[in-house]
Specification:
about 95% helix, rod-shaped, mainly alpha
Length: about 60
């Protein structure tokens, strides 16, 4: 009986350790997703600004012709 309790306790401790490790990996993945999203939003904003500037330049050039 005592041996079974010890084995059960060891299994539960190992499982808790694995759960903590998985939680850490999950947190890291969420952080990477957040950083990637921020980077893509920044890049999209920069691209939109560049496209708008290029469009204005094209309109000005068309008016000059």
């Amino acid at each position: 009986m005592v041996g079974g309790v010890i084995v059960y306790s060891l299994i539960r401790m190992r499982q808790a350790s694995q759960d903590a490790e998985w939680q850490e990996h999950l947190d890291q993945a969420r952080e990477q997703v957040r950083e990637t999203r921020e980077h893509l939003e920044e890049k999209a904003t920069d691209t939109a600004k560049a496209t708008k500037a290029k469009a204005k330049e094209t309109v000005r050039a068309a008016k000059d012709d």
